[in-house]
Q: What sequence folds into this?
């Protein structure tokens, strides 16, 4: 199977000069596994919109919901680029929500997190109309989006502002997230967090508590953008110390970027990230076998 898939991967790589990587992944992503409802406003700003992927074939019993936040250093990204993520999750029976949020320079920390909280509140209130169970709501994010998911799960102030708390989150999934990154080294990220006066409360690792929801943390073993030992490993260690269930995985055949791309159908052989996500959600965040 790998011998068959490797030429496909090489062909995809060869085409990247003519097509954007996400455009190509989306072009080969099927559309028969979901029904998409687009551009639902959860706020008044044009960036405060979300898309919902309702699975064609649902699981027996309550249908879990995944709210996904993409990365992009908090200064780029579009929900339409992540249709392959929506399809990957919907094809396994989950109602999937992909939300845009305001970016720098329009906003800085913590305003994009407030957008995430409002998106979560909208999903919690309305997702039953789209077939999802608000009592089984999971957060997920890649890179900067993994940070957003972590902060919503760990910093109680964010959900408190929308009259919710972490008990509304069944679990959260972080792919290559930065959870402990002060002082900020990336020049594109520095102004987002007011460098050199970046507030310590901007770091997920400073919000650890025993009441945090279960976590699934994944990273590329040789991530050259977000240090996996400090961020994924450090956060997992701190969560375990206070008794929070956490599953931790590192993959050799992906990079910071291709970890999320491995959720797409052509590249799933690169890492079993989707398998771990399905296992985590289907076990209700590890609460059952």
A:
């Amino acid at each position: 199977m790998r011998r068959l898939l490797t030429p496909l991967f090489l062909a995809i790589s060869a085409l990247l000069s003519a097509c954007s990587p996400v455009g190509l992944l989306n072009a080969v992503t099927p559309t028969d596994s979901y029904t998409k409802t687009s551009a639902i406003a959860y706020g008044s700003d044009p960036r405060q919109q979300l898309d919902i992927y309702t699975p064609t074939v649902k699981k027996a019993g309550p249908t879990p919901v995944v709210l996904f936040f993409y990365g992009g250093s908090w200064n780029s990204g579009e929900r339409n680029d992540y249709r392959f993520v929506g399809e990957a999750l919907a094809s396994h029976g989950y109602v999937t929500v992909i939300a845009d949020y305001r970016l720098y320079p329009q906003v800085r920390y913590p305003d994009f997190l407030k957008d995430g909280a409002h998106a979560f509140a909208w999903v919690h209130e309305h997702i039953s109309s789209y077939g999802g169970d608000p009592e089984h709501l999971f957060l997920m994010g890649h890179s900067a989006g993994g940070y957003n998911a972590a902060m919503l799960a760990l910093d109680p102030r964010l959900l408190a502002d929308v009259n919710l708390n972490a008990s509304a989150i069944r679990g959260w999934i972080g792919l290559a997230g930065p959870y402990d990154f002060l002082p900020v080294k990336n020049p594109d990220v520095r102004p987002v967090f007011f460098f050199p006066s970046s507030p310590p409360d901007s770091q997920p690792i400073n919000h650890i508590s025993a009441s945090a929801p279960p976590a699934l943390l994944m990273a590329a073993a040789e991530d050259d953008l977000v240090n996996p030992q400090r961020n994924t490993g450090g956060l997992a260690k701190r969560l375990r110390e206070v008794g929070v269930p956490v599953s931790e995985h590192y993959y050799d055949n992906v990079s910071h970027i291709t970890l999320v791309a491995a959720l797409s159908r052509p590249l799933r052989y690169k890492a079993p990230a989707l398998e771990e996500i399905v296992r985590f959600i289907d076990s209700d965040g590890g609460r059952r076998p």
